[in-house]
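Job type: complex structure
Entries:
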Amino acid sequence: MSASGGSADLLIEGVGKRFGEVVALDHVSLKVAQGELLTILGPSGSGKTTLLKVVAGFETPDGGRVTVGGVEITALPPAKRDIGMVFQNYALFPHLSVAANVAFPLEMRNIAKPEIERRVAEALAMVELKGYEARLPRQLSGGQQQRVALARAIVFNPRLLLLDEPFGALDRKLRETMQLEVRRLQRRLGLTTIFITHDQEEALVLSDRIAVMNRGTIQQIATTTEIYERPANDFVADFVGESNIYHGTMSGPGTVTLDGGRTLTVRSDKPAGTKVGVLMRPERFASSGTNAFTGEVIESVYLGTSFKLRLACEGGLELLVRQPARGALPATATRVTVGIDPESIHVF
Amino acid sequence: MDIKRLHRRHALSLLGGAAAVGATGSAFAQAEPPKPAQLVVNHSGGSMGTAMRKAFFNGFEKKYGIKVVETSPVDFGKLRAMVDSGNVEWDLTEIGGQDAIRAGKANLLEKIDTKVVDRSKYPATAQNPYVFASSVYTTIMGFRNDVFKNGSQPKSWADWWDVKKFPGARSMRNHPTDNLEFALIADGVPKDKLYPIDFDRAFKKLDQIKPHVTVWWSTGQQPAQLLLDKEVVLATGWNGRFYDIIKKGAPVGIEWNEGALKQGSFAIPRGAKSPYWANKMLAELAVPQQQAVYASELGYPGLNLESLNFVDPKVKPFLPTAYLDQQFWVSDEWYAENGTKAAERWNAWMLKKG
Amino acid sequence: MNRSIFPALPALILLFVFFLFPVVRMLGFSVEGGTFDWYAKALGEQLYLRVFWNTFEIALLVTFFCLLLGYPLGFLMATTTPFWATMGFIFVLLPLWTSVLVRTYAWMVLLGRNGVFNRTLIEAGVITDPIPMLHNFTGVLIGMVHVLLPYMVLPIYSAVRKVDPAIPAAAAGLGASSFAIFRRIYLPLTLNGIFAGSVLVFVLSLGFYITPALLGGGRVIIIAVLIEQQVREALNWPFAAALSAVLLAATFAVYALAQRYSQPVETTR
């Protein structure tokens, strides 16, 4: 591998890792195309951080291969991998100035001084930190520290960029700004990037594709819309976005009989008798539709742009419904009717 | 020396306190003062403490019902600090010979009450008004008797200096006392003409032995240990320490000739809480039968000349009082005046290369 | 009175009574009679200058060797598993819990002419005559480093512990070799620990007394021995005070110097 190789694709094949009895990674395989931003989304303990450590070289997998740009790096020490990484708490060098932090990876590569100065200035300009060169990390705000970490991770033109929950410590507004900024920078540099988060909203905003992980395996890899609209299983459906999930059996072409007895009209060509899951996103309900539900409001919340209602319907169904905030907020204990069309129901 | 100036200052500063103590003392002179709950005796500790308890303290406690509390170590600086500050913890303390003389002169000690302590059987050298001579000890030659077999050990300091005839590593005390005398004797000065010590002559002679001394010892158990570990084959040391390991079967012998005798001393610090009972304790230390018990334990006989009569004949050969005429008495008086000078010369000599 | 210092008052009183007051008393002693004669003697006579120099030389060497051994040890203890860290603590602290005589005897058993080391080497045919490791300068160094090592290891251990493990990991990820991580990351970030440990060891070395006397065979004379002689044997307290004051002043000077040159490097480019 060479230091100036530039962005490359990443291939993970059958990587496994156990810690004693705990299986952290169970034959994980995935591919990230050159220039793509892939998010690994999962709850804590799902194995996403272990996967990132394997890619970065801080953990050695028990089996499997990691390949970058066609070259296997599985056994390479971190220092030889040419991977830029932004840590959860940034891991800035507290005793070094902003400029020295950013210059560090270049110095480790024995790059000539004038060249280092030029590239540090360029990287700091890119993250809009011109004029902060001499400051120490502790003299910066959280957002500024994050930018330094980012500049340090990209300044040496790495083959991959890894982001380990980098926005966790920022407040909401700053987080949103930074998310967009990272996205913009990543696109501009065409950097192959893996982004780790447990925040599904963040995953939806940033990613080209999302890999949802749970218990050491990848549950689904797909584009953001695919993940949201057509989750592969209960876990993905539940973890990404708000959802109403029920189980039932195909009772005929385009009809599902839920386990509670209620029959729904859906778009699905699964043969009759197939056990299926049914996902109805709360915001897909309208005041009327092919499948109508009437129920008693047991919880109602005003959210500014929408109302969030919880309805207790017949057959033991409990529905979470979001409606545009128009008119008065339905009071609890009143009865409300909502409907949903077959194309808005995802059968899996 | 500036010690004199120091003494004068202390004499002045202590005048008030001394007067007060004197007054209290005389008030109790007629009747026996009340018994304190305890009597604090400060000594060197270790096996000496064990032997003192066996020979003297247990009997004293039984006789008077006063608990004897033992503290250690012996510390002249601490004694002075106690007396200076008026907070005297010790009722009785062991004290080095030359220190005792200086302490008496510096007004740090109470006088021994000769009405309580009977010293009629003591030699004239042991009648100092402030100092009670509790025992005799001597610095002599210890040797490995598996190296120097059948009496082939050095028998004089001239022999000790003769490293060709008596080869092997030696250990001597890291202190001018004894060594200056030994050097002079080795150089031909008669035992009774040692004082005042001729420093230049002594150190010149010491130069000759310096390369052959691997360890200059600083604590009493070192010479015995060094002989046991065969770290050296010849060591000067205190007779009791050699007696102790010989009793336990160590291959070590003692050469008594030209040993340096000193007396172990006890004294009552000025301002002690129970001076009367401290004198009573000294009276106990003067009982010849008890001194014999003590001597059998440690090899340090008392100065009550009758005490040898009560000692087991097997122990007698290990007691310095059996060889008094072969040895010489170290002059505490001379060291009291010249100790500082001697120490400075010694340090400077020790720092010299070679 | 400023309310904020109120909680610290007991400690301040304690410090005043047990530290400041005795020091002032001591300084008073040293110039008794309005004369600086004792200082002139302490600083003018070859004997005392030589011994001061010896003392500092030993303290410096002990500090150096403690650092040499203590840094890797403290570092390993801070980065290993809790089990090994505990084992490390026990072995490092053991000498502190042992009486000086037991410790010294242990050294004699190991290092003596007929000690374990020499016997093993002679039996193995490596040497024919015992190597003198005891009763000389080497013995003093070994003994002092042994006893003082904890004072070096503990501050370094805690300094290394304070370094967020992500920081060296980040450096490795950015291309730093192990040596570069040590030199550019750990060393500057643990400089405070090194400084604290070194000052502790150095200052404690200056006052060492029993170990040099026992392991040095009497040849290694340091200033504490002379001060002790003046206090206990010569009873010349003014001179002892003057010697102590010179030692104290020199110690402060070294401390100030060390502090001045050990500020964490804050690289500004």
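Summary: The CA atoms of residues 142 and 306 of chain A lie 32 Å apart. Residues 10-234 of chain A form a domain with the Rossmann fold fold (CATH 3.40.50.300).
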